[in-house]
Structure formats: C-alpha cells, structure tokens
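Please predict the structure of the following assembly.
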Amino acid sequence: VNRVTPYVLGMPFILFWLVLWVVLISVTMAVIYRLDPANREESTS
Amino acid sequence: VIALAVIGLFLAASLLLGLRARRGRDMDLEQWSVGGRGFGTIFVFLLLAGEIYTTFTFLGASGWAYGKGAPAYYILCYASLAYVLSYWLLPAVWRYAKQHRLISQSDFFVAKFESPLLGALVALVGVIAMVPYLVLQLKGLGIIVSVSSDGMIPSHWAIVIGTVALTVYVTISGIHGSAWTAVMKDVAILAVVLILGIYLPIHYFGGFEDMFQAVDKAHPDFITLPTSGMSTSWFSSTVLLSALGFYMWPHTFSASYSAQNERVFRRNAIFMPLYQLILLFVFFAGFAAILVVPGLKGADADLSLLRITTATFPSWFVGIVGGAGLLTALVPGSLLLMTSATCLAKNVYRLARPQSSDQQVTRLAQWLVPALALLSLYFTFNGGDSIVSLLLMGYALVTQLFPALLASLSARRFVTKQGAAAGIVVGVVTVAVVTLSGVTVGSLMPALPQAIKDLNVGVIALVLNTVVMVAVSAVTRTAGRPSAAPPQVQPEATAGAG
C-alpha cells in the first residue's frame, strides 16, 4: 500500500488508501448506530 | 496593514462573542466548566471537533507535509480511530460523570478509585501534558500574526496580546465563551482551508495529480513513508497511541461532560471522521508550498502555509487566513487554560485544604487562569521545538492515563488505586526520560529488526505502564483486604432505562 501509483482522485495511492478507510469508518459507525439497541428508544431519551 | 485590520476584527469579534455568552447565567463551577451539562449534538460536535482544528492542524499539518511528507498523513488517521473508540467510551464516561456530578477528569478517577490522591496525580499529569499543548497554540498564534502582518508586529507582542485576550474571556465566560467562539472558528477555518487546498494546487500546478507528480519528481520517496525512521511501523504505532490518548486530554474528557445526553456522542461518531477529511486540503496546501516557497528548514516548516498564502493572495485575504488562524489558537487555548485551572483548583488545592468552600474553589480556578497563561508564555519564549513534536510529547504523556481509565470502566475491578497510580507514574517517567534524553527504541536495542526499532517510544511507556499497573494491583489486592465495594451503579443497569 505504501506507494505512489496508481493515482486515485488525484492522490498518491497511499493517501487515497487512508482516505478510503476514514470514509469506511464513518459508514461503519453509521451502520452500528442503526443496529445498536441502545439507540432504539424513542428520541426523547 | 489591511491584513492586520482584518485580524484585529476577528479578535474583537471573538472577544465580544465570548463575553456575550455569559449573559443571564449564574457562574458556579459547574456552569463555568461544563456548561451545566446542557449542550446538544452541535455544540458538543464543535467543542470536540474544535479540538482537532487547532493551530496544530492549520500550521502543524501543513508544516509536516512540507517538511516531512508522508508521515504527516498520520494526523488524518488517528482521530478517526479515536471516534470509533468514543462511540463506546464516552457514553460510559458521561453517564458516570452525570450521576456523580463530576466536573474534571480527575474527579472521574477520584470517584472510580475512591482516592483523592490518585485524582491529584491525574490532575498534575494532565496539566503537565497541557502545557506543551498550550505552548504550541501560543507559538502558532505568534507565527500567524507576525507573518501575516509582514513582520510589523513581532511575534512576541502578538503572543502577549493573544494571551491577554484569551485570559480575559476564559476567566469571565468559561466554557460558554469557548463554545460560541468555536462556532465562529469552525466556519472560518473550513472556508479558508477549502479555498487554500483547492486553489493552490490548481493555480500552481494545474491539478492535484499534477502537483503530486511534480513533488514526486523533485523529491523522490517524499510522498510515501520511508523504509526506516518514520516508517510504516512508526506510522501505525503513532496512530494507535494518539487514538488512545485522544480522549485522555483533560479538556477533551471534560468537554464531553457538557453533552445533554449520551446519544450525542454516538451520533457524532458517525460524522466526526468525515470532518477529518478537511485535513486533506491542509496537506495539499503544504505540498504545494514545497515547490512554491522552498527552503524553510526545521521548525520554520510551520511557516510554510502562511508563506505561500502571502506569496499568492492579496492582503485582505491574508488577513482572513490570519484571523481564522488566530481563532484556531484561541478556542483550544481557552479550553486548555480552563481545564488546567479547574483541575488544579478542584483536585489539588481542595485536597490540600479540604475545608475550603465551593465559592473559594471557583474563585481560585478563575485566578489560576492568568497564572497558567503566564507560565505558558514563559515556556513559549524559551523553547524551539516544532509544533508537531510538542503535540506528540503531550500525547505520549496523556496516553498514560488510558490503561487506568479502561480498567476503571470494567465491571469486575481488578486494578487497585495503588496499581493505577504506579502504572501512571512509571509511564510518565518513561516518557519524560525518553523525551529528555532523546533515545529511540533503535538506540536502546540496536539488534532488533527495523520495524520494532521505529515504534513510537510512547508505546513502550504504555506497555511498561500496563505491566506495572497489573503487577502492583495483584500485589495490593492480596496484601490488604480490598476496600468496601464503591456505591456505584453498573452502567448496564442505567442503559436500558434511558
């Protein structure tokens, strides 16, 4: 992963790779938030 | 001169906001430092996210991209991991803090381990770690004002003026001032960073890819991690260490007390990582500066963002950049000052004089603000480290609190107060020795493979810390009878009640 090519979205590959994971983390957290029973109660909690 | 006027306007506006935020509120210590626990998603988001967008991000991240290249990427990564952690960590912390009406981070340790002495220790470690962080903000402040005023205001004076402004509004408004200035700061910094990060590469190189190719050609291997030194194993260990330390900062820890309910944190864990991506544009600006304003060495790399700005834009825009930069120093600076003062007054002074009244403690906390500001001023004028090095040292220190915190959250208490204290002391001493003597893992044990040699030294301190904590806990648990079970409600019990 630690390399320059190929460029993705104008970024060297390593930078793109890290950015990709940051976005994936956000997506994962959104999914967890949806599934987590602790958030199920009505919104006034 | 125009640039200066614009910066002055920013300063005046932030002061005004900070002072207005106080109106109509009775300032006891709980209001002053945790906003009466009434902040919703957006305020908490801004307070916690505001922690990331400090002068460190602004000057440090671009400075590292400029001076060191790829290792700067770590800044993008660690906070995202920290947010994942926060999803589970912060609700537990917040719940306990609310039940026990805690105000500072040390209070948490006092309550969990039933040991005011441990609390005082935590307070001291926190304050010691916060001083380099505060110094870093002041240093940045000085750089920003002096560079964007074309040297008309020497950085010494800029630092003094900024510190005075900071002190005034922290003393008067406490966290309410910080929250409102944080709003203004984030809007300003987002705009500025996006403009710089997009405009500069396109203006000078024609596009992002063209820019990276140009940098790669001029400095081969600069935009990937080196094979030794700041290698992939340095990168991973630093990311991990910083992620663990992220919420151990006393000001971040206690800023989380200000939330209205625990879902605030869970929701924020989704959006905070995306907010991190703004950092990309800071890197872009730093990389652009490599070829446009070459030749800045060592700690001067922190100047790169501002140098390229003054070289590219008209004076009024330089003023806006400077003003935004000023806010990035003031907001975190104010939280840092306030938290250190609260910790010292509540967890150290109270311990020495238990009979002092709440009012006296609040008053003392407010008086400690200028005293601490003076102390940091002193260090700012007498040190030469670059911004990121200062931050890494602070992180290595606060991370030492993590094992004890984690242990305190588990339902079965294995770790004793002696164990926690011993672990923290060993960890902090290790960091101090290593930082002062400048050794690395490699210089201690030259025979090891390169990947291990490059580990961040904070990791070693953390391992020693944990080992000592567990060992001492095992001994003190069997030696003395464990003290009576603390009157705590298990977190699980309250979770369902919501």
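The interface with chain B takes residues 2-4, 7, 9-12, 14-15, 18-19, 21-23, 25-26, 28-30, 32-33, 36, 38-39, 41, 45 of chain A (CB under 8 Å). Chain A has a mean pLDDT of 71.
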